[in-house]
Amino acid sequence: DFGPSALGSSSAEAIYDEMQPFGPLPTIISGWFGEVLARAHLLDRIVAARLGWLLLTGAVPCALYFIVLRSRGARVAALSACALFAMPRWVHAAAAAREPAVVTSICIILLALYVQSLSPSLAERRRGITVRFRCAAVAFAIALGLGISTSLATLWVLPIIVVHALVARSRGFFAGRRRS
User: Fold this and answer.
1) DSSP codes joined into one string, 34-93
2) Residues near 98 by Cβ (< 8 Å), separated by ≥ 6?
3) Separation of alpha carbons 47 and 53, rounded Å
4) How many CB atoms are closer than 10 A to CB 25?
5) Are 115 and 130 contacting, i.e. CB atoms less than 8 angstroms apart?
6) Do 117 and 69 touch, CB atoms closer than 8 A?
7) What's the pLDDT tens digit per position in 98-141?
8) Would you say 30 and 11 are in contact if contact means Cβ atoms under 8 Å apart?
């Protein structure tokens, strides 16, 4: 059973039952791609069953790097990503696909996309640093929708983003209100 027929196999059904509480997208990734890779003897069944979550939680150190990069530079960003990857509790929870690690992964990825969606500062634009902030804003919206379909606990990242947006934009907001 390769390709679309692998979606209905008995082992794929077992994977769906295990991953069902987490939402449709990672279940399909784990069930379909994981089953195909397991049948081709590239992955064992345990890794194949958790492939969707391993891909998601594996992207978190990279997302953390991009969060820190905008404010502290490349050296501190790389150190923070390595520090997260070196934490045994995080690595175990991510590998075991525990729900708190999955929700935290989604929230960190959303925060990284939010930070990348902010328009570059005037100093960055003068130095010629280009940031594709409009593409990141679209990716943020898509990731938020997928995160909400996975777990409603993803919505807890929105108050953090709203408070940051209010604080970051407060000077322009209050200056504009004084003029009118």
Assistant:
1) HHHHHHTTSS-HHHHHTHHHHHHHHTHHHHHHHHHHHHH-HHHHHHHHHHHHT-HHHHHH
2) none
3) 10
4) 14
5) no
6) no
7) 888 888 999 999 999 999 888 777 777 777 766 677 788 889 99
8) no
How many helices (H) does the chain have, and how many strands (E)?
13, 0
| CA-wise closest residue to 57 among 22, 15, 103, 25 | 103
pTM: 0.75
20's tokens? 């069902």
The count of C-alpha atoms lying within 13 angstroms of the C-alpha of 56, restricted to the half-sphere facing its C-beta, is 32
**What amino acid occupies position 50?**
R
> For residue 76, what are its two tokens?
């501190």
Q: Over the stretch 3-30, which tens digit does the pLDDT of each residue have?
A: 555 556 666 666 666 666 666 666 666 6
State the amino acid at position 56 in one-letter form. L
